[in-house]
């Protein structure tokens, strides 16, 4: 990439923010949630929304734009990757499912600039999130362990928060390279 994009912002109050604080859908009035599970869900929901915000307003070509060679990482690849890992996490405590996008790295390799691929990625991600959420919410004891390695329900929730947070950092850099939009 030879051209450095200018900074992009929808905000009018603080030029270095994406949106004005009053318009940020992640900001909630009132106290934080009570309880461990509610707190984990709140953080996970916030990172999920952040990822979608980082993809907002981009076309298929922009979403599929790769970072730097030899990396295959793109915003579209991240959407597909997170759908794939949600499916994998569900398989940790239920019946493992076939991979969504084929062999290893199919989530990133198949992230091509096609509107149908983009639409399918959003549908896949929502479906897999919903399935994993529903299965995990049925396990009310966060200390319950399952599988050969004794993974706890708590560990799976925390791991999901960590995975989305890490990839939101990647998405920050990818988005800034596309149009200069920076994180908030």
UniProtKB/TrEMBL annotation:
Residues 1-34 are annotated as: Disordered. It comes from the Bacteria. This is DinB family protein. SUPFAM superfamilies: DinB/YfiT-like putative metalloenzymes (SSF109854). InterPro entries: DinB/YfiT-like, MST-like. It comes from Aeromicrobium piscarium.
């Amino acid at each position: 990439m030879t051209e450095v994009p200018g900074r992009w912002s929808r905000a009018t109050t603080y030029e270095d923010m994406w949106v004005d604080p009053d318009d940020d859908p992640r900001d909630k009035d009132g106290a934080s949630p009570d309880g461990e599970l509610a707190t984990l869900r709140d953080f996970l929901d916030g990172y999920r929304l952040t990822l979608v915000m980082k993809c907002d307003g981009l076309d298929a070509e922009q979403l599929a734009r790769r970072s730097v060679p030899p990396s295959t990482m793109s915003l579209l690849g991240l959407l597909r990757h997170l759908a794939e890992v949600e499916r994998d996490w569900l398989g940790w405590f239920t019946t493992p499912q076939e991979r969504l996008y084929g062999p290893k790295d199919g989530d990133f390799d198949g992230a091509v600039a096609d509107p149908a691929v983009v639409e399918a990625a959003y549908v896949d991600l929502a479906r897999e999130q919903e399935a994993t959420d529903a299965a995990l919410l049925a396990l009310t004891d966060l200390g319950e362990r399952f599988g050969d390695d004794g993974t706890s329900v708590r560990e799976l929730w925390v791991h999901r928060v960590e995975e989305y947070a890490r990839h939101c950092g990647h998405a920050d850099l990818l988005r800034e390279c596309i149009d200069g939009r920076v994180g908030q």
